[in-house]
Specification:
single chain; globular; about 500 residues; seven-stranded mixed sheet; about 20% strand; about 35% helix; 18 strands; FAD/NAD(P)-binding domain; alpha/beta
Length: about 500
Amino acid sequence: MYEGISMSKYDCIIIGAGLGGLTAGAILAKNGKKVLVIEMHNKVGGFATNFIRRDYMFDVSLHNFGPLKENIVVNKAFLELGLYDKIKYIQYDYFQRLIFPEHNIVIERPIQKYIEYLVKLFPSEENGIREIFNLMIDIKKEFDEIEGLDVTIDKLEEVYPMLPIKFPLLVKYVETTFGELLTTHIKNEKLKGIIGNLWWIYGVPPDRLAAILYSVPTVGYYNYSGGFIEGTSQRLSDILAGIIKENNGEIRLNCDVKKIIMEGNKAIGVITKECSDFYADVIIANSSAYETFVELMDENEYNKRFRKKIAKLELSLSANQLYLGLNCDAKDIGITDHCITVFESYDMNENFQWIMNGEYDKTFYSLTNYSLFDKSLTKEGKSVISVMSLDHINNWANLSREEYRAKKERVSNIIINKLKRRFPDIDKYIEVQEFGIPVTMERYTRNPQGAIYGSSQINSQSGVNRLSYKTPFESLYLVGAYVYPGAGYSSVISSGYKAAKEILKTFKG
């Protein structure tokens, strides 16, 4: 019983209704806990949501959910919550088409098929190709074994003192970048670019990206292709919210948390701007690490050092995304793949620098043709596509309102002109056009700088070095992109599931 409070109204309060928070809330509610989810927007989901313009339904962010049943933790969550019976997962036939100045590659599953393709393309690099991919496969095997253990990442060495023997590759490569792996095994610079192309999904170029982080999901994508949730990711968010409500939980939309109430080192409730103040035994923050520990908590003797650590986190890049509704079948103008990623250079450091410089005529783009696999998003004969690239909020800084609008129009036209190089008639069929930029990402998610992947997946912030869902503060947990294992739909679901299972132990204790 808290000082000045007769009783705790809820077992758990969740700040933010992204997939991490919703997953945690659904698990807790289904296990009999009284849950309150507080969300500042008028719908749940965070990045996992949609919007409608005229005849077109657009997914805000989902291009590829990744493997589903093959992901150990996500599969557990889906089974426990009965989600397989409530959603339709559309598996892609192949991962994507990858286009470079001199190469046009379809990445087919399984991964061994892609390995053989690359060997035929670069026969002199056969040994290196097999070595690096086999290493990535073995790294993923060790990672999957750890994922199956009932232990938090920060307690691994404590629970498994023989860690270097049981998981030798994870220990050996914990400080290695993927760029270093490429240099060790591959000589051809173009091949390095092809193998390292997926860095943009993780937000850091190979020379700075943690090798383990690159290897694990990449092997999953290449082996199983991944897929999409029919009806957009909003469908999954709404189902999770429904599970919370069906199990006596509450979700308050348009309600903004102003402060986390602390009693010494213990989180006991939240103060909101629009609603009442609420109290609970456990608080889960599905907000950014910076917002949680710097903006929502007053500085005191318990958190001064930790706040400094959070303020120093290197943030990931943001994104720009062009949403297009076409009044034609995209296949009729040559868009016959569900996903196409195009690079102007094999040098990934150069690609990264173009992003940082805002050289939009040179930056890569990844096009997703949603209507090829989900017919529910628009009328027959029409198409929904999106074109995504990485961006940095500094490219949009210090602009007047007029300059801001003019730049948005200019950059969106640059992207359309890049599309026209491959699909010359596409501009004739654009019926709806929306453009999201880093400022948009920051405004709707409150991730500082619009960082779409949370903190960068550099080695010092990846794996065992990433924030844990368990915080230094009693009864306060963090879920989402900033904690282990990181960003992406599967990862944030994993964080929410693991946090909820740990919290259930505390209630039993």
